[in-house]
C-alpha cells in the first residue's frame, strides 16, 4: 500500500491544530498510488486528502503543482484544491516530509475504462491543456527524452534480466525514438501521468483529475500518447482502436490537432511507452523485495512500445477515418 511514512496520532493532532478544518472523525492510509503517501482524513467539516511527498517529487516543484491545481480549479476543472492553514500557507511538513492537505473528490477510477469514459477523458485532457495556459510558474519535464538514456544507463546490464539482449534492444529503440523526436509541435502544460487510476468517474461522467505530480511543460500531443497507452490497450495487450478514436474525438471536440501533431502521434506514443518502461524498469530493479508497494511490470510497456513502432501511421489510432 502506498504509505511510506506513518503519521502517529499525537503528530497528526498537533499538525491539524494549524488548520481550521474541523475535528478528526477518522484518518486512514490509502492503498492506491505508488509515488507518495496518501491519507483519507474525515473531519466534522468534510473529507480531505493528506499527501506526504516521497520518491520522485522534489520539494522545489511543489509551488508549481499547487498553482496548477488552483489555476485549473479556478477555471472550473474538477481537480483537488490545496487547503490553506490558518496562516495562509498550503505547503507544510509532517514526520519530516513535505506535505499538503487537499479537498476530496468524489468518484472512482476504472481499471478498464469503456469507450464513453475514453471520450470524456479526451475532452478533459484538451480542457486541461487549454485551461493551464496563463499560469505563472512552469516546470521542465524531468522525465523527458533527454533523461531516458541516463535512466537506462543507471540500470545498465541488469536490463538483460528481462530477456536476452534486452539492453541492446532498448538502446536501439531509444535511439530510433530520440532521433525522430519532433521539436516544433505546440507545447504547454501537460499532466504527464493521466492514467485511469488518476481519473475519477461517477457512472461515465468524469468527476475528477488527480495526481498532478509529474505535470510539466512539454509537447501537448505527448500527453495524448500517454493516454492512448494507458487507456486504450486491453488486458491481453491488444490495442483497442474504438477507444482510441473515442479519446481522440473527445480531445478534438475541444482542441483541434494539426496534421503535424497527428503525424507525430506514433513517435510520441512510442516515446511515452519508453518513458514508462524506463521508470518501471528502474523501480523493478531498485525496489526491495520486502517493500510495501509492488513495482509495476516494465514488460507491459515494452509490448506497447513495440506496437507503436510497428504501425504504418496515424490511421492505426483512428485518425482520418
Ligand atoms: N483529492 C482526492 N480526492 C479523492 N481521492 C484522492 C485524492 N487524491 C488522492 N486520492 C486517492 O488516493 C489514491 C492515490 O493518489 P495518487 O495521487 O494517485 O498517489 P500517488 O501520487 O502515490 O500515485 C488515488 O488512487 C485516490 O484513490
Ligand atoms: N503511472 C505510472 C506510475 C505512477 O503511478 P501513479 O499512481 O502516480 O499514477 C506507471 O504506471 O508506471
TrEMBL record:
Keywords: Amino-acid biosynthesis, ATP-binding, Kinase, Nucleotide-binding, Threonine biosynthesis, Transferase. Pfam families: APH. Gene3D superfamilies: 3.90.1200.10, Phosphorylase Kinase, domain 1. The keyword Nucleotide-binding applies. Residues 28-256 form the Aminoglycoside phosphotransferase domain. Pathway: Amino-acid biosynthesis; L-threonine biosynthesis; L-threonine from L-aspartate: step 4/5. GO terms for molecular function: ATP binding; homoserine kinase activity. HAMAP family: Homoser_kinase_2 (MF_00301). Belongs to the pseudomonas-type ThrB family. This is Homoserine kinase. It comes from Puniceispirillum marinum (strain IMCC1322).
Amino acid at each position: 500500500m502506498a504509505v511510506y511514512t506513518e503519521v502517529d496520532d499525537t503528530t497528526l493532532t498537533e499538525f491539524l491544530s494549524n488548520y481550521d478544518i474541523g475535528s478528526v472523525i477518522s484518518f486512514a492510509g490509502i492503498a492506491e498510488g505508488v509515488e507518495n503517501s496518501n491519507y483519507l482524513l474525515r473531519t466534522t467539516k468534510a473529507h480531505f486528502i493528506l499527501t506526504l511527498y516521497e520518491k520522485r517529487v522534489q520539494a522545489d516543484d511543489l509551488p508549481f503543482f499547487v498553482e496548477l491545481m488552483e489555476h485549473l480549479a479556478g477555471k472550473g476543472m474538477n481537480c483537488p484544491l490545496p487547503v490553506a492553514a490558518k496562516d495562509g500557507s498550503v505547503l507544510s511538513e509532517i514526520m519530516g516530509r513535505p506535505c499538503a492537505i487537499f479537498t476530496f473528490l468524489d468518484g472512482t477510477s476504472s481499471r478498464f475504462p469503456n469507450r464513453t469514459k475514453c471520450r470524456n477523458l479526451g475532452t478533459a485532457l484538451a480542457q486541461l491543456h487549454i485551461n493551464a495556459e496563463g499560469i505563472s510558474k512552469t516546470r521542465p519535464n524531468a522525465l523527458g527524452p533527454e533523461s531516458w538514456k541516463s535512466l537506462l544507463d543507471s540500470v545498465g546490464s541488469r536490463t538483460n534480466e528481462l530477456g536476452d539482449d534486452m539492453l541492446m534492444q532498448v538502446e536501439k529503440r531509444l535511439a530510433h525514438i530520440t532521433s525522430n523526436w519532433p521539436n516544433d509541435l505546440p507545447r504547454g502544460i501537460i499532466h504527464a501521468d493521466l492514467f485511469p487510476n488518476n481519473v475519477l468517474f461517477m457512472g461515465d461522467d468524469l468527476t475528477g483529475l488527480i495526481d498532478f505530480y509529474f505535470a510539466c511543460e512539454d509537447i501537448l500531443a505527448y500527453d495524448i500518447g500517454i493516454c492512448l497507452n494507458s487507456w486504450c490497450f486491453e488486458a491481453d495487450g491488444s490495442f483497442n482502436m474504438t477507444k482510441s478514436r473515442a479519446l481522440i474525438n473527445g480531445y478534438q471536440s475541444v482542441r483541434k490537432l494539426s496534421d503535424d501533431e497527428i503525424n507525430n502521434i506514433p513517435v510520441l506514443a512510442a516515446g511515452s511507452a519508453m518513458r514508462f518502461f524506463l521508470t518501471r524498469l528502474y523501480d523493478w530493479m531498485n525496489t526491495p523485495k520486502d517493500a510495501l508497494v509492488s513495482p509495476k511490470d516494465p514488460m507491459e510497456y515494452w509490448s506497447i512500445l513495440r506496437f507503436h513502432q510497428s504501425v504504418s501511421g496515424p490511421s492505426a489510432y483512428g485518425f482520418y477515418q
